Amino acid sequence: MTVPEIIPIVYEPDYHTGTIGPWEGGQLFGSVVAAFREGYTRTDDWPTHKRWYVVLHTFDTAGHHLDSRIERIGTEDDHRTAVDLAHGRLKHWLDALPGLRFDDIAIRPFQRTFDGVLFGLVIETFEGEEHAEFYPNNIGFYEPWDGLYDT
Q1: pTM confidence score
Q2: Is the alpha carbon torsion for 114, 90, 16, 6 positive or negative?
Q3: Which of 62, 72, 116, 123 could be bridged to 37 by S-S, CB 3.0 to 4.6 A?
Q4: Cross-sheet strand order for the sheet of 65-75
Q5: How large is the average pLDDT for residues 102-129?
């Protein structure tokens, strides 16, 4: 089975897809996520290289990517402060969206690079099978394309 043009994503409260849903402007996927810049190789000072981001991707009702609001909040060496600040910022962004309700969404593949980190829903092939991977969250979507995912 080939990857569908529009990938369904199931809303799971308090998990990886706990801040997705429709709103008056279309659909959204919000998250707080940590990532290393592309090409980083492990060093002893890795906490200063692991960066925390707050992310809000918006899509129209047909699943086309409209915009990505991404901010680097801090690094792992100040984990609690960075994560708390990121969650607060995401809540502020979500509270400003009229008609938001958390629920399933369906979006099309897209890519954005910010701060040397890939963000987006990317079609990839692994062991001969195509799937969709949501970066940098590392959430994988596969057949039967029912919106469930692997991490």
Answers
A1: 0.95
A2: negative
A3: 116
A4: 20-23, 26-35, 51-59, 65-75
A5: 96
